[in-house]
Amino acid sequence: MANQTLGLESNLYQYFQQVSVREAEILRQLRKETAKHPMARMQIAPEQGQFMALLVQLMGAKKTLDIGVFTGYSALVVALALPADGQVIACDVDEEITKVAQEFWEKAGVSHKIDLRIAPALDTLEQLIAEGQNNTFDFAFIDADKSNYDNYYEKALWLVKPGGLIAIDNVLWGGKVADPDIKDNRTQKIRNFNKKLHQDPRINLSLVPISDGLTLALKK
Ligand code: CA
Q1: pLDDT band (50, 70, 90) for residue 40
Q2: How much distance in Å is there from the Cα of 103 to the middle of ligand 1?
Q3: 20 to 30 A Cα–Cα from 57, which one of 63, 82, 155, 164?
Q4: At what angle do helices 149-159 and 185-199 cross, to 10 degrees?
Q5: What is the structure's pLDDT at 41?
Q6: 7 Cα to the center of ligand 1, angstroms
Q7: What angle do helix axes 46-59 and 25-34 make, rounded to 10 degrees?
């Protein structure tokens, strides 16, 4: 969905980008490469990447999860923000598209920080739980198939430590969630998911209307 912040008219959005976005050259190149792909809109907006990098630095995060890799922008922006011994476990099913990701991680000199697991993300998350890695992750970013959002969230909630953060992308879903006439399956899933998180006593919550809507859930 939207790869720029929703609801800002274009002059203001341009200004916002001009005085805020400091996209590294390698990220800019990856954006250019991704634009050739028919699903390019799946990439996160640069202002969102920068925001996530800042969060990760603010937290002093070391161990992170990237659920839904695509061409690897979010994993790259996080890996660049992590310390030298930081780690991203990156989950995706698509061996082809993640080749682009790997090429750019290599070029950026952070491939040693990123552990790509080609498998259904739920399997990878279950495996991490089975290995006893509960309560060990600082940060998780969920941006994969929307029908599984709740499942990813539940697994991520096991894996992050208390005080750890789960960031969930596309929760405003291009504005469709606010239109009661739109009842397709994915929109309904995101609506239900948002409603659930609003009531969830296990987290502190903030839905940030950056990009296509980014929910921040801090595990208590
Ligand atoms: Ca997304």
Answers
A1: confident
A2: 21
A3: 155
A4: 30
A5: 85
A6: 17
A7: 140
CB atoms within 10 A of CB 10: 8
CA 65 to ligand 1 center in whole angstroms: 15
Query: Please, is 150 exposed, middle or buried when counting C-beta atoms within 10 Å of its C-beta (0-12, 13-18, 19+)?
Result: middle
**Domain assignments of the chain as residue spans, ordered by start:** 10-219
Asked if 147 and 185 touch (Cβ cutoff 8 Å), the reply is yes
CA 23–ligand 1 middle distance (angstroms)? 18
Two tokens, residue 76: 């790259």
Question: What's the start-to-end Cα distance of the chain, in Å?
Answer: 30
142 CA to middle of ligand 1, Å?
Answer: 8
Dist. CA 78 → ligand 1 center (Å): 15
Tens of pLDDT, residue by residue over 106-158, are 999 999 999 999 999 999 999 999 999 999 999 999 999 999 999 999 999 99
Cβ atoms 218, 163 nearer than 8 A: yes
For the question of whether the overall pTM of this predicted structure is more than 0.90, the answer is yes
Per-residue model confidence (pLDDT) at position 2: 54
Distance 1 CA to ligand 1 centre (A): 6
Fold classification of 10-219 is Rossmann fold (3.40.50)
Instruction: Give me ligand 1 centre to Cα 70, in Å.
Output: 9
